[in-house]
Automatic annotation (TrEMBL):
Keywords: Acyltransferase, Biological rhythms, Cytoplasm, Melatonin biosynthesis, Phosphoprotein, Transferase. GO terms for cellular component: cytoplasm. The keyword Acyltransferase applies. It comes from the Eukaryota. Gene3D superfamilies: 3.40.630.30. Pathway: Aromatic compound metabolism; melatonin biosynthesis; melatonin from serotonin: step 1/2. The gene is Aanat. Coiled coil: none annotated. The keyword Transferase applies. This is Serotonin N-acetyltransferase. One of its GO terms (molecular function) is aralkylamine N-acetyltransferase activity. Its EC number is 2.3.1.87. It is found in: Cytoplasm. Belongs to the acetyltransferase family. AANAT subfamily.
Length: 205
């Protein structure tokens, strides 16, 4: 069982009422909205959303399909997917990092002893953009991290035009990132993750 499925604030929300068949028996229906950790079986759906979201903007994806599978095998508990009626509509993938700032190696490595969660990518399906889903998903992801005893910080790198979005999510800019991808430059951002004991007292973790 993934760590995510045990958290009360990440249980499926707005569940659809069970429908009855003519014979009076209930039919099972998919939840209208569900948040859960991703698995390697979700990799293709993840990559399809990511490719559409990033190729037109930067010409490349933060994670290629084999890298998505790599991280979802190594650290699925650091991912979060938003599903509507069984269909993936938005996701975050992260891994652990063990240094103060991100370096080029952070793009492909998972450091199990690290205490910083490197958020590789957040993407929303094109059909549900401009609905605030990215902000909601990030909020739920940060709540999830606060219930993981090893997580102390969340780090990410983004292009300058995305800095205001992440600042609204509670991140602070640390300055230029040492990581480059082709000719692209990034700003590194950080969010402090409160300790495990605090969240046990305040959110039922």
């Amino acid at each position: 069982m993934s760590a995510l499925s045990a958290l009360p604030f990440l249980k499926p929300v707005h569940l659809r009422s069970p429908r009855s068949s003519p014979g009076g028996q209930r039919r099972h229906t998919l939840p209208a909205s569900e948040f859960r950790c991703l698995s390697p079986e979700d990799a293709v759906s993840v990559f399809e959303i990511e490719r559409e979201a990033f190729i037109s903007v930067s010409g490349d994806c933060p994670l290629h399909l084999d890298e998505i599978r790599h991280f979802l095998n190594l650290c699925p508990e650091l991912s979060l997917g938003w599903f509507e009626e069984g269909r993936l509509v938005a996701f975050i993938i992260g891994s652990l990092w063990d240094q103060e700032r991100l370096s080029q190696a952070a793009l492909t490595l998972h450091k199990p002893q690290g205490s910083a969660v490197h958020i590789h990518v957040l993407a929303v399906h094109r059909t549900v953009r401009q609905q605030g889903k990215g902000s909601i998903l990030m909020w739920r992801y940060l709540q999830h991290l606060r219930c993981l005893p090893f997580a102390r910080r969340a780090l990410l790198m983004c292009q300058a035009f995305l800095v205001p979005f992440y600042q609204k999510c509670g991140f602070e800019a640390l300055g230029p990132c040492r990581v480059t991808v082709g000719e692209l430059a990034f700003v590194e951002m950080q969010h402090a993750v409160r300790g495990h004991a605090f969240m046990r007292r305040n959110s039922g973790c």
